[in-house]
Amino acid sequence: MSRVRIGIDLGGTKTEIAALSADGEVLLRRREPTARGDYRGAIAALGRMVRELEADLGVAGTVGVATPGAVSRLTGRMKNANSTWLNDRPLQQDLERELARPVRISNDANCFALSEAVDGAARGARVVFGVILGTGVGAGIVVDGKVLEGPNGIAGEWGHNPLPLPCVADTPLRACYCGRSGCIERYLSGPAWMAEYVAEHGIELNCAEIVAQADSGVCQIAGASLDRYLDRLARALAGVVNLLDPDVIVLGGGLSNISCLYEQIPERWGRYVFSDSILTRLVPPLYGDSSGVRGAAWLWNGVDG
Questions:
Q1: Is the peptide bond before 172 cis (omega within 30 degrees of 0)?
Q2: Can you say whether the dihedral through the CA atoms of 276, 185, 35, 47 is positive or negative?
Q3: pLDDT tens-digit map of 121-162
Q4: Fewest Cβ atoms nearer than 10 Å: which of 62, 158, 252, 289?
Q5: Which distant-in-sequence residues (6+ apart) come within 8 Å of 65 by Cβ?
Q6: pLDDT tens, 231-282?
Q7: Of 275, 297, 229, 228, nearest to 61 (Cα)?
């Protein structure tokens, strides 16, 4: 067997590891609870998972890791991780020491975008913008099959840009944990949408229930809530099209399962995009939750082994 590409998705609650063949076949996949808050324990667990997987396959592999943060270009340590126990830790260096080999690390949204660009829903596209709409909001950019990270390591940090063209319904601008106000994440994440619904109507529904109520046509409140969400997402993605002009935008995260997004957003974003035509495609993911670990493995795409 030729050398495999091993991907690790280091999540807040679970850690997944998978080995891919050169053509993207999953050779082996495992997951276990993340050692939350125990940095040294997490390093040891990742090393053990890699060694056990390689022993079972009988072959060594390259290792890529999807993380909930980014590596600082200034310090070489983790930053911006919502798993805060990783922040200011030399994760890459410690993993390389543990595994005695080079390790590639990238943000989980970058890995999602890479997975869908290499052999997923955006396969064959030159410029891909991969969006995470879930408990948080993030994104990654892939150009010619490679993650674009930028000199600051923050390319694609879409969720912590201001929501474009705020209207009365968006004000007062919502405070964000990042220290700013009006961030896209504070309007388009699942928790933000649900919190707004509860605050306005005193009824606790999850996002899927809001959509179902709206689709039924008998609940005007839910219909108005969905309409606001669609308009906000159209504005936010129009800003991406104006700035990056990607070939494909792939939606991921739990809210990517809302089927009406793929028809409604392209119908709405035209009023905000500075063009007489919009050829950008908006598509659901092919691999969904598996894209993190697949994209981590593909961080070594193009490297012979």
A1: yes
A2: positive
A3: 999 999 999 999 998 899 999 999 999 999 888 899 999 999
A4: 289
A5: 7, 8, 9, 10, 46, 91, 95, 103, 104, 105, 106, 296
A6: 999 999 999 999 999 999 999 999 999 999 999 999 999 999 999 999 999 9
A7: 297
Residue 301: both structure tokens together: 């795409």
| Contact (CB, 8 A) for 44 and 98 | yes
32, 46 in Cβ contact below 8 A? Answer: no
What phi and psi, each to the nearest 5 degrees, are found at residue 27?
-85, -35
Residue 66 burial by Cβ neighbours in a 10 Å radius (0-12, 13-18, 19+): buried
Query: In Å, how far are 231, 253, 290, 292 from 115, measured between CA atoms?
Result: 28, 14, 9, 7
Which residue in 96, 84, 93, 76 sits closest to 12, CA to CA?
84
pTM above 0.70, yes or no: yes
Residue ranges and CATH numbers for the domains of the chain are 4-113+289-300 (3.30.420.40), 124-285 (3.30.420.40)
User: Which secondary-structure segment (H or E) carries 96?
Assistant: helix 91-99
Place of tokens 């039924």: 216
